[in-house]
């Protein structure tokens, strides 16, 4: 079974500062995908960034970047120049590269950006 | 615009009643999913369907039922057998290409009164 662990239930960051959210996972698979989703107070799940396990290069989307360490099974999210709109719950998710493409989610990290 | 529509946004159920949550997508996605979200527990998979007229149980299927008669629709019924149904329910879909991940609906908040 796949498990995804987010060890930081809550975090806060000052506006314009940088924050890193941690995620580790456990799998015996070699091919898979990793995602970060954002859930603001509206509760709409929004894709932030995704990473293919076979790619060594870390994914980047504007102010969001990941540090993907395959051997360590770690997938952290770095948010640069934090903005008030970044306040949300962030979920790390794992998807196997096999049929069924089911997501396995972490328990989430609640991030608050402080003005 | 393409997307996933969940209705209703809020739903109240009396104990002992069955209720059905609607999920419709116009993205032409093959696979659809139902997740339950509880505080501190992340999202847990209830049921999923990869093709019409076929579906599989997820991790917490007991007390729930689904159907997939049309590609666009994947309704979830919360039966009276579900002991603790109060939760936030999310529907999602994916085109089947693994990399794209999920597109989510806006969710339904179910409360037992």
Write the layout of secondary structure elements.
The complex is a heterodimer of chains A (115) and B (113).
Chain A: E1 3-5, E2 10-14, E3 19-21, E4 24-26, E5 32-39, E6 46-52, E7 60-61, E8 64-69, E9 74-79, E10 88-96, E11 103-105, E12 109-114
Chain B: E1 4-7, E2 10-13, E3 19-25, E4 31-37, E5 43-51, E6 54-57, E7 64-66, E8 76-78, E9 87-94, E10 103-104, E11 108-112
Parallel strand pairs in B: 2-11
Antiparallel strand pairs in B: 1-3, 3-8, 4-5, 4-9, 5-6, 7-8, 9-10, 9-11
Instruction: Give the chain pair forming the largest contact, with residue counts.
Output: A-B, 24 and 25 residues
* Assembly state (oligomeric): heterodimer
Radius of gyration of chain A: 14 Å
> What is the overall shape of chain B?
globular
Shape of chain A: globular
| β-sheet strand percentage of chain B | over 45%
User: What is the H-and-E element order of chain B?
Assistant: EEEEEEEEEEE
Unreliable spans of chain A are none
Query: What is the element string of chain A, with H for helices and E for strands?
Result: EEEEEEEEEEEE
Biggest sheet of chain A, in brief? 6 strands, mixed
Strand content of chain A: over 45%
Determine the structural class of chain B based on helices, strands and strand pairing: mainly beta
Summed up:
The complex is a heterodimer of chains A (about 120) and B (about 110). Chain A has strands spanning about 5, 10-15, 20, 25, 30-40, 45-50, 60, 65-70, 75-80, 90-95, 105, 110-115. Chain A is mostly beta strands and about 120 residues long.
Describe the structure.
The complex is a heterodimer of chains A (115) and B (113). In chain A, strands 2, 5, 6, 10, 11 and 12 form a 6-stranded mixed β-sheet that branches. A 4-stranded antiparallel β-sheet of chain A has the order 3-9-8-7, with no helix packed on it. In chain A, strands 1-4 form a two-stranded antiparallel ribbon. The mean pLDDT of chain A is 93. Chain A has strands at residues 3-5, 10-14, 19-21, 24-26, 32-39, 46-52, 60-61, 64-69, 74-79, 88-96, 103-105, 109-114. Chain A has no helices and 12 strands. With 113 residues, chain B is mostly beta strands. In chain B, 0% of the residues lie in helices and 50% in strands. In chain B, a hairpin with a 2-residue loop joins strand 5 and strand 6. The A-B interface holds A 4, 9, 33, 35, 42-45, 47, 50, 52, 91, 93, 95, 97, 99-103, 105-108 and B 31, 33, 35, 40-45, 48, 50, 56, 58, 88, 90, 92, 94, 96, 98-99, 101-102, 104, 106-107.
